[in-house]
């Protein structure tokens, strides 16, 4: 009989009826040979085994002990270096077998760093940690990273029930590190604020390259993606080699030395850093909640339209803070008479355009295997409806954008709230989506757009600048308008304004003390 088990026999009391019932159900699912082996034990040892089998799972207790915010919110690079290398607040649970192996690597210190199930039983955390330290995973770097980072974070977040913290992969970044041969890089979020990004390379000799790519992407991000905390964490990995760092606009800092997964001690350092990143995130959480920011990496659900047998797909991604729209096949979009390439290119690059009209760089690749249109836009906005007190400013900004288009002989043709975003700096509203622009005062060759109502076109069936203003009037039906607001809306719907400039004058001439909308 196991010595430790025998030692506990005399200390255990008789099982009560409830435990006997649980034990019966547990034993009924065991293999017959296992049950026979248990039955051969003396009564006291049999009770001891059942006690071990029925011991409570303490995953939640361990997570709540270890994963707590730092007393001082880490805001500087020095703070972050101390925090990410901080010792764990409790020994890490591992299996008895794994503890014996770790004892050989860590010596007497193993008793301080690790705990076995008989002393502190955690089913999930112990199982995960034991896998990370398994000799079988010695050459499986991607598996160890997955277990130590996303799997561990998801487990702890689930146990702690801190749902605004999420983990995803960067499928929208098509750099060499996210090729088909390697997995997309990890992104760790809290309230849509990027906490940590990884950059992965295939070979150990490429660690410097991984760090350089990470630095290039993170230090070029606009400050608006950082918010009130000026640093974003990063992890560069190259096969088994890895290093953590911190990045802000124009600056990067190493937070750890270069580590290698071939070393059991460095695997522990990875686990320790991973848990401390969660602690750092919990420390930052209240700041993110009060000061939300936009994601610098995102991919949205594609939209299809046109002929069901030959649909057009429009997708939208944000990579390194740059919003990019893709339409494919572009020739089909043009063939449906939504726009022409020369119209779009001019509309996105008007020299004297108002800041409230989106600017961008367009590109079309057409050939045997490609028929793709992309536009990289200069403004990353937040898609949200203006609140009542913001409505007048939003309408003025839309009118200013239309004024720029109309001045150059173009009409937008799809003016609606879905195509108006709040600039991430929250200074102004921006009219976007110029892939339906056309020349003013023409009979549309495309099918009617969803936003068009019977009064959109003029009596001759032409779409004019006044038609764009009419759509602005339709946008106002979402709101409870004052008497002055309804009068302004009526003027738009009756096409009484000769131009966007006239509508701007009418709107700005109203008494500001009177709530227009």
Could you walk me through the main structural features you see in this protein, from its secondary elements to its overall organization?
Residues 1-18, 20-32 and 176-181 have low confidence and may be disordered. Strands 3, 4, 5, 6, 7, 8 and 9 form a seven-stranded mixed beta sheet that branches. Strands 10, 11, 12, 13, 14 and 15 form a six-stranded antiparallel beta sheet that branches. This protein has helices at residues 3-9, 17-28, 32-39, 43-53, 59-66, 77-84, 96-106, 110-113, 123-132, 141-160, 207-218, 264-290, 330-335, 341-347, 391-407, 465-475, 483-493, 500-508, and strands at 92-93, 114-115, 165-169, 186-190, 193-201, 232-238, 241-248, 251-254, 259-260, 298-299, 303-305, 312-319, 322-328, 360-366, 371-377, 381-382, 410-411, 420-423, 429-431, 438-439. Helix 1 packs across helix 4 (43-53), helix 15 runs antiparallel to helix 16 and helix 16 packs antiparallel against helix 17 (483-493). It is α+β, with helices and mostly antiparallel strands. The chain has 18 helices and 20 strands.
């Amino acid at each position: 009989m196991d010595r430790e088990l025998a030692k506990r026999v005399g200390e255990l009391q008789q099982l009560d009826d409830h435990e006997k019932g649980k034990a019966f159900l547990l034993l009924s699912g065991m293999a017959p040979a296992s049950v026979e082996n248990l039955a051969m034990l003396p009564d006291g040892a049999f009770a001891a085994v059942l006690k071990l089998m029925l011991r409570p799972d303490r995953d939640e207790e361990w997570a709540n002990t270890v994963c707590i915010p730092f007393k001082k919110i880490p805001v500087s690079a020095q703070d972050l270096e101390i925090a990410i290398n901080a010792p764990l607040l409790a020994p890490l649970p591992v299996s008895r077998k794994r503890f014996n192996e770790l004892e050989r690597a860590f010596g007497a210190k193993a008793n301080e760093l690790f705990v076995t199930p008989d002393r502190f039983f955690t089913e999930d955390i112990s199982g995960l940690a034991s896998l990370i330290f398994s000799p079988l995973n010695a050459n499986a770097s991607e598996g160890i990273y997955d277990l130590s980072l996303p799997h561990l974070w998801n487990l702890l977040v689930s146990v702690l029930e801190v749902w605004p913290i999420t983990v995803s992969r960067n499928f929208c970044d098509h750099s060499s590190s996210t090729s088909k041969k390697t997995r997309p890089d990890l992104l760790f979020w809290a309230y849509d604020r990027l906490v940590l990004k990884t950059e992965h390379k295939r070979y150990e000799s490429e660690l410097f390259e991984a760090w350089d790519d990470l630095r290039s992407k993170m230090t070029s991000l606009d400050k608006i993606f950082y918010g009130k905390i000026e640093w974003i964490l990063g992890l560069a990995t190259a096969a088994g080699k890895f290093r953590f760092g911190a990045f802000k606009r124009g600056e990067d800092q190493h937070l750890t030395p270069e580590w290698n997964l071939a070393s059991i001690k460095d695997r522990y350092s990875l686990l320790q850093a991973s848990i401390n990143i969660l602690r750092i995130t919990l420390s930052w959480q209240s700041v993110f909640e009060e000061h939300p920011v936009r994601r610098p990496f995102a991919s949205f659900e594609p939209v299809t339209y046109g002929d069901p047998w030959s649909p057009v797909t429009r997708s939208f991604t944000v990579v390194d803070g740059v919003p990019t729209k893709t339409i494919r096949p572009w020739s089909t979009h043009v063939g449906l008479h939504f726009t022409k390439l020369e119209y779009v290119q001019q509309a996105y690059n008007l020299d004297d355009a108002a800041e409230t009209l989106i600017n961008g760089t367009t590109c079309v690749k057409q050939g045997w295997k490609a028929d793709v249109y992309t536009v990289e836009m200069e403004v990353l906005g937040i898609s949200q409806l203006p609140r009542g007190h913001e409505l007048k400013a939003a309408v003025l900004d839309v009118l200013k954008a239309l004024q720029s288009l109309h001045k150059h002989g173009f009409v937008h043709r799809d003016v609606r709230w879905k195509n108006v975003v709040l600039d991430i700096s929250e200074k102004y509203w921006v009219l976007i989506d110029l892939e339906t622009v056309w020349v003013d005062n023409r009979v549309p060759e495309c099918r009617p757009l969803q936003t068009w109502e019977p009064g959109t076109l003029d009596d001759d069936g032409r779409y004019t600048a006044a038609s764009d203003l009419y759509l602005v009037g339709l946008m106002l039906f979402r709101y409870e308008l004052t008497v002055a607001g309804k009068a302004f809306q009526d003027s738009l719907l009756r096409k009484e304004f000769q131009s966007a400039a006239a509508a701007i004058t009418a709107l700005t001439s109203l008494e500001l003390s009177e709530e227009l909308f």
